[in-house]
């Protein structure tokens, strides 16, 4: 519940979806007993330049200073504020002056006359205004900070959502969901709700979201690595691979994303194979053992590579790498290198035969898997 002792509510964080979701909860709490629709107002704080920042703050000022028609308390939500970020607009001297004006306005507002909710994402917490809000307002920081935490922070989001829905994630299910969806908070939450509904069954009792549920029901939106054809190919199952290719092209798919997915996975497996052959890692029932130790020994070769990439095994999630390596028999290094050459050959072929992409990939699959 809102802190009645504070003059306004301030919700901020790196993720606009999470920030606005909590902001809406606070706004709904404040407006629950407000029957006069004119006493409720939502003002957009989104601005692309200094001129729009000034317009947004002026609209907010007018709303806050408007007297309720029937003498009751007004509730104003200043939503989607983005000019408090470390951006060109946020750093502009004119913006900083306007933010000072906003601070003066908030300092003079009578909370007995108007209740205020401000939601801001992203935000530069080093600046004076957020620090002042933290001391003065009913302050909430969503997500733990300015984007740090990565998959760990997102994992906390879906685990919290599952608890609220009365379900839990089984072993490997949460990690698989993160790998398939990626850093899309809104979609992660929606997928968690969908999975919870499915896992709950007809009785709706608390139960477990299993890894198999995620594999079957969640679409592959993060990267191309989870295409069915890639899964089938690296399992070594030619019949499944050909069926997956048929399904892909029957629905109007293109060959290039499949080749890209296969190349990316193959690059990772080449590096895994090299570590396994050297005895520095081992593929077991739980995935790949020894990756952190190998990263200590070889990570310096990738200095300057900060983004996740199939070229750098150590930029990958350790659990995800274990799933790739353990999903089927790990091919020999020679076979993996030959695969990469076949992928290049297939790409060259689809350039020459753009209307025969299905046939090109079927031929490639037969060559690779028959020789494996």
Describe the structure.
The structure is a single chain. The chain has 372 residues and is an alpha/beta fold. It has three domains: 9-142, Rossmann fold; 150-217, Helicase, Ruva Protein, domain 3 (Orthogonal Bundle), CATH 1.10.8.60; 224-371, Up-down Bundle (Zinc Finger, Delta Prime, domain 3). The chain is built from 16 helices and nine strands. It has helices at residues 16-31, 50-65, 88-91, 93-108, 128-136, 150-165, 173-181, 185-200, 211-217, 228-235, 238-250, 255-277, 291-298, 318-326, 333-352, 357-371, and strands spanning 9-13, 40-44, 74-81, 114-120, 138-142, 168-169, 208-209, 282-284, 287-289. The strands form three sheets. It has a five-stranded parallel beta sheet with strand order 2-3-4-1-5, sandwiched between helices. A hairpin with a 2-residue loop joins strand 8 and strand 9 (287-289). Helix 6 (150-165) packs parallel to helix 8 (185-200). The protein starts with 8 loop residues before the first strand and ends with a helix. The relative contact order is 0.09. One of its GO terms (biological process) is DNA-templated DNA replication. Residues 12-132 form the DNA polymerase III delta N-terminal domain. It holds the Pfam family DNA_pol3_delta. InterPro entries: DNA_pol3_delta_N, DNA_polIII_delta, P-loop_NTPase.
